[in-house]
Amino acid sequence: MNTVNPIEIVNQSKLKGFHYILILCLFFIMMFDGYDVVIYGATIPLLKEDWGITDIVAGSIGSYTTIGTAIGAVLFGLYADRFGKKRIIIFTTFLFSFFTLLSGFAPTPIFFVICRIIAGLGFGGVMPNIAALISEYAPTKYRVAIISFIFCGYSVGAMTASFSGQVFLEKFGWQPVYWIGGLPLLLLPFAARILPESISTLMKQKDTKSLVTVLRKIEPTLSQVVQFTYVQQEKLQKSSVRDLFKNKLALSTTMFWLSCFCTFILMYSLNTWLPTLMMSAGYDLKSSLLFVAVLQIGAIIGTLVFGNLIQLLGFKRVLIPLYIVGAVSLVLIGYSKNIYIAYGLIALIGAASVGLQNMSNAYVAEYYSVDVRAAALGSTMAFGRLGSIVAPTYMGILLTFNLQPQFNFFAISIAAIFGAIAMSFIREDRADYAVEKQVTSKKVTILKSSTNRL
């Protein structure tokens, strides 16, 4: 009976039809995750008008939503190994889709907030599990590109939110745009059939039959009768956040958390308040919603372009300068009077916020070994979500002071500077890929030494 390592089969495989179907399914889920998150910012002006709420209250609603998102990231990130990543992805997609749909029927702000908080549980839980699942099935050569591409779905969804806002808001009100957010409910029966369970979960369950079925889609020549070994088999017990602070990982884990916190401040300050900020700078509602689309276009292009640069230069050499570019662009846009220059700056900001987070997710997935990857992604995003809780209310309070636009944008740019500082302290020598290279190098050295003796 052949003995194989399923992780090695995946890592060394070529892209197959199985991969493309999986990528498209996860991309679609991420697209509506992005839509459902960003649509609130597009509807704030109308919600304020309909319900007579202030900027602080509108910001607080955004913060309440992200409290649910933070809880979801922790809850569904840390317990993914117990229930299986596939089940968590299906359940969290149901949560954010159904309760976004229900938000469109909210008769009062309180009911609306309750729906958004529960939807937030889904927003927070789906991201880390999608990243963890695809990182187990993506070949090593394409892993960063695949994860970055899937997370571009978030930006596509946010763009869709912008365009649907332009089409529906002035003519039909804010309700229909939330109804659109319920469309993934139609996808769930298909996703349940398409999505595979994670390799680590199948190994824990000793479900050899299912594992062989999945792996034969990646490597058709694999025998039906095979025995599996797993490099991290001795670590297959429940992973926890404490494992992220062992083996000299404490500093890097802390810095990942802080950089994610800063990036989420950037993202949610802009996702929630960009239309309002641009309206305060003199643009009308339609133009302000177009800036949201440009922000996401910048995020998509930035993810694809800088994602390829990462393959050549490494994560830190790309992401740290990108933080700085974002900070400078935020400062400059406060002084820009030319709409086309403003579009260019907003696109750069999109690359340095949403796009940067897409690539940071890939960084975390690559940095940690597979046995703690779900816990790493879940806890990093959970800590980052604290930034998403702070950002909407923080900006809402700032707007009540009626400051000049450049001061508001400068306040956001501070987060980018601190994000760059935090990422600069991440230790590359403790990354899983660096450790693997060290082990391989030692094996080669020992082999050469043995050969010389012979």
From TrEMBL:
It comes from the Bacteria. The lineage of its organism: Bacteria, Bacillati, Bacillota, Bacilli, Bacillales. Pfam families: MFS_1. Residues 22-431 form the Major facilitator superfamily (MFS) profile domain. It is a multi-pass membrane protein. It comes from Psychrobacillus soli. This is Aromatic acid/H+ symport family MFS transporter. Signal peptide: none annotated. It is found in: Cell membrane. GO terms for cellular component: plasma membrane. InterPro entries: MFS, MFS_dom, MFS_trans_sf, Sugar_transporter_CS. The chain crosses the membrane at residues 20-44, 56-76, 88-105, 111-132, 144-165, 177-196, 249-268, 288-306, 318-335, 341-364, 376-401, 407-426.
